[in-house]
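Problem 3 from the worked examples.
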Amino acid sequence: MLFWACSTSKPEGYRVSQALRENTYPFLAMIMLKDRKMTVVGRLEGLIQPEDLINQLTFIMEANQTYLMSERLEREERNQTQVLRQQQDEAYLASLRADQEKDRKKREEQEQKRQEEEKVRQSVLAEERRRRTLEEEKERKSECLPPEPPLDDPDSVKIVFKLPNDTRVERRFLFSQSLTVIHDFLFSLKETPEKFQIVTNFPRRVLPCLPTEEQPNPPTLMEAGLSRSEVLFVQDLTDD
């Protein structure tokens, strides 16, 4: 650093002048960082020829070359250290962001897994409730069935039902009873599918056992054209 002074009229020039204690103008001081503090390493006062000025400046620089090199190296080392620290900070932040993103994805995966497990649990509970409700409905239907007529009842109809699992069930009903009674009886059985329809063998027809908008009151066994002895087929409609 060079300090050149030809007057001390400005406040900052005056303060520097007081610090350097120059006596003659023009005044030239060479200042450098030496031993970690700013030090005056050369002073030139009064008029001087250009060639002498250059020679003396060159001499001062060469005399302090060791300090200059040392300061340059320290400055470069500080810069490298600063760059390295900055790179380390950036790498740390990048690693931190990666870890945070990893944690976020892990939390999302855990939450998604929890929701899926909760969904499965709710589905199992719903299926259990549905089955309990179905069993309770079967029991209710079974309890509400009219008693089976005796063998010698002239109004009785013997029906053999063939279930989808190839089992056979036999029961007597009355001609005067609604086809709904047949459906309720089959529904109350554990072997019967949840949804089904009752079909005659020949001619093949589906018996209208349940109320509909067009037929709110299903026909009786006699109105359906059943004989005193029948074989009816139960068709599984659960997957339809």
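Problem 4, a separate protein:
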Amino acid sequence: MTPDETVVLARYVRALCPQQKFDEYTPDAWHDVLGGYPLAAARAAAAAVAGRQPFVSPAEIIDEIRKQRDARADSFQGPGLPAEIPDADPDDVPAYLAALRAQRTRAADGFELKPRKVATLIAGVGREVPPEITEVKRPGPLGIDCPNCGAAIGRPCRTPGGSERAPHAARVGRKDADAEKAEAERRRAASARFLARQQAEGRLLGDGVIDFEGGAP
């Protein structure tokens, strides 16, 4: 807002609030506070404030400008309002976000948003997908088909009976496969030690059945 426009705003507010006191220095003081705002936005804000109370201050005008900008930015794609697709490639995330921010700023400033033509919107349909996108694989053991049980990518491995189980060794890689093998060996050794201890204590009956009551065979 220029100094001359601030004079216009001061006269407008005086017309809205005839009981409010103004002098020849008022426009200069108001320009120091409101110079960074457009005249149209300040006039609309002053009218809104004057509709609620008999006096209007520069601080109240600024607060109302911010409220009106926020309201327009939040509802620029609401019911009955023209939707504008950001003019940027959605695959270019920084450019798309910049276009979206610019669009919201224009909406907040009160600029009319124009719907883009259908031909523009579908211009990128059917274009070739870059190989670096198509070749991306899901990380982790579920990122490949399981050669043991045939589980597809993203699906868990299964036992012969159909129950879910931890990924097979061929699916988790050499390091994890070694860990799985070592765990199996540890469990077998623990079972062997348990059976040997039971035999030493004389608690095994025929066919390897344990006598938990501790009685004699």
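Solution to problem 4. The chain has three domains: 3-74, 78-127, 142-202. DSSP finds nine helices and two strands in the chain.
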